[in-house]
Design brief:
CATH architecture of the largest domain: Up-down Bundle
Order of helices and strands: HEHHEHHEEEEEEEEHHHHHHH
CATH superfamily of the largest domain: Butyryl-CoA Dehydrogenase, subunit A, domain 3
Distance between the termini: 55 Å
Number of domains: 3
Shape: globular
Strand order of the largest sheet: 3-6-7-10
Radius of gyration: 22 Å
Largest sheet: 4 strands, mixed
C-alpha cells in the first residue's frame, strides 16, 4: 500500500468522523452485548476502509505500513470514542504475539480474522496458585499423538465470556525448572471441556472469569512458539500488555475520571475555587501530562522498531498510581454522594463505579510490586530477590 502520512491522516479522520462519536460527547451507555457487537462492527469497517492491521503484513490481512502510520492513526483516534475495549487484549496482546511467534499456517488461519474482529481472543495465564508468579502455574498439557490434552484452571481471564479463542500457557515438562517446560497453545473456547464461569466484581459487573480445562484436546499445530518456549512467548505478551495499558496517554481511568472531567464537576458543584480541590486536580493534571510523555516515548521506540522492554513496566506502574490518585480526587469532590447516591442523580452511579474499579489497575497486567521489581532489576540494575528453589525441577518445588 502506497500512501503519504498526510493522506492517511485525512482518511483516518474521515473514517472516525463517520464511525465514532467525538470524545466531547457523553459516553454511549451500551450493554456488554451491544458493546461487543459495536466493537466487531467498528473493526470490520476499519478493515473494509483499509485502516485495519496498519503495521501487519499484507499477506496476513494488514496494510504493511510502518509504525509511524499507527502513531498518526492513534493521534486521530484520541479525539473520538470508539468501541475498542472488548478487543483490547485481542489486538493489544494476542495479535502481536501471533504475528511474532505464530507459524505461517497459524497466521494465515487467524490473523486477518483477528484484525477484523471476526475472532476475539483472550489470554489465559493466571491461576489460583500462580497469580503474579505466572511461571509457577500448574495447568498441564500432555502429548497424545498429534494432540495435547489440557487440564487445569485459569482465573482473572478478561473477556473470555465473548471470545472465540484464548492463548493458554501450560506446563508440558514438569521435570524442568518452572520457567522452562512451558508451552503456549491456541485454545478454541468452544471445545468440549472448556467451562467459563464469570466472577462478580465489587462494581457488580463481571469482566473477569474462571476458566476450567478438563481433558481439552488441541492439535499439535496449536503450539505457538514451539514446545518448551512458552515462557518467552508469555513474557513478550506481558510486555505488550503493559505497553497497551501504560502507553495510551493518561490511561483508561483518566478518561473516566481525569482532570478535565473533575474540573467540570468542580465548577458544577461550586468548588472550583476551593484550594484543596484545585491542588488535587492540578496535581492530577501534571501526572497525566507526565504519563502522556511516557506513552509518547514508548510509542516512538515502537515506531523505530524496538520491541517492548521494561519501560512498559514504568508506564503501567504510573498508570496504576495515576488511577488511584484520580479516584481519591473524585471521591473527595463527590463527598457522601460518591458512596450513597440518589438513583435518579444522573451519572453518580458511573462515578462510583469508576472509583471502586480504580484499585484493579494495581493488579491488571502484573501488580505494582511486580512492576517495581522489574524496574529495579532491569532499569536500576538492583539484585534480584533470592529464590531458594532456582534451577530445581518444578515438580520438586513445594507448593501449598
Amino acid at each position: 500500500m502506497t500512501i503519504t502520512r498526510e493522506d492517511f491522516q485525512i482518511r483516518a479522520r474521515e473514517f472516525l468522523e463517520a464511525n465514532a462519536a467525538p470524545r466531547s460527547q457523553p459516553p454511549v451507555g451500551w450493554t456488554e452485548r451491544e458493546l461487543v457487537a459495536e466493537c466487531r462492527r467498528f473493526h470490520q469497517a476499519l478493515a473494509d476502509a483499509e485502516l485495519g492491521g496498519i503495521t501487519y503484513p499484507v499477506e496476513y490481512g494488514g496494510l504493511g505500513l510502518d509504525k509511524g502510520y499507527l502513531e498518526v492513526f492513534n493521534r486521530e483516534l484520541s479525539q473520538f470514542q470508539a468501541p475498542l475495549v472488548p478487543a483490547a487484549i485481542s489486538h493489544g496482546m494476542c495479535l502481536p504475539v501471533l504475528n511474532d511467534f505464530g507459524t505461517p499456517e497459524q497466521r494465515d488461519r487467524h490473523q486477518s480474522r483477528v484484525i477484523r474482529c471476526d475472532e476475539i481472543w483472550c489470554q489465559m495465564f493466571s491461576e489460583p496458585g500462580a497469580g503474579s508468579d505466572v511461571a509457577s502455574l500448574a495447568t498441564r498439557a500432555i502429548r497424545d499423538g498429534d494432540q495435547w490434552v489440557l487440564n487445569g484452571q485459569k482465573v482473572w481471564t478478561s473477556g473470555a465470556q465473548y471470545c472465540e479463542y484464548g492463548l493458554c500457557v501450560a506446563r508440558t515438562d514438569p521435570a524442568q525448572p518452572k520457567h522452562r517446560g512451558l508451552s503456549m497453545f491456541i485454545v478454541d473456547l468452544s471445545l468440549p471441556g472448556v467451562d467459563i464461569r464469570p466472577l462478580r466484581q465489587i462494581s457488580g459487573s463481571s469482566h473477569f472469569n474462571e476458566v476450567y480445562l478438563s481433558d481439552v484436546r488441541v492439535g499439535h499445530d496449536c503450539l505457538v512458539g514451539g514446545e518448551g518456549n512458552g515462557w518467552n512467548v508469555a513474557v513478550a505478551m506481558l510486555m505488550y500488555e503493559r505497553v497497551a495499558i501504560g502507553a495510551g496517554g493518561s490511561g483508561a481511568m483518566s478518561q473516566a475520571m481525569g482532570s478535565a472531567k473533575l474540573i467540570k464537576e468542580a465548577r458544577k458543584r461550586g468548588r472550583d475555587r476551593d484550594p484543596v480541590v484545585r491542588d488535587s486536580i492540578a496535581d492530577l493534571y501534571i501526572r497525566e501530562r507526565i504519563q502522556t510523555f511516557i506513552g509518547m516515548r514508548i510509542r516512538q521506540a515502537a515506531a523505530s522498531g524496538k520491541a517492548p522492554g521494561p519501560e512498559g513496566s514504568i508506564a503501567k506502574l504510573n498508570t496504576a498510581i495515576l488511577s488511584r490518585r484520580a479516584s481519591d480526587a473524585a471521591i473527595e469532590l463527590a463527598g457522601p454522594a460518591g458512596q450513597a447516591w440518589d438513583a435518579a442523580a444522573g451519572d453518580a452511579a458511573e462515578w462510583a463505579s469508576a472509583v471502586i474499579s480504580a484499585p484493579a489497575m494495581a493488579i491488571a497486567g502484573g501488580t505494582n510490586e511486580v512492576q517495581r521489581n522489574i524496574i529495579g532489576e532491569r532499569v536500576l540494575g538492583l539484585p534480584k530477590e533470592p529464590d531458594p528453589f532456582k534451577g530445581q525441577p518444578w515438580e520438586e518445588v513445594p507448593r501449598s
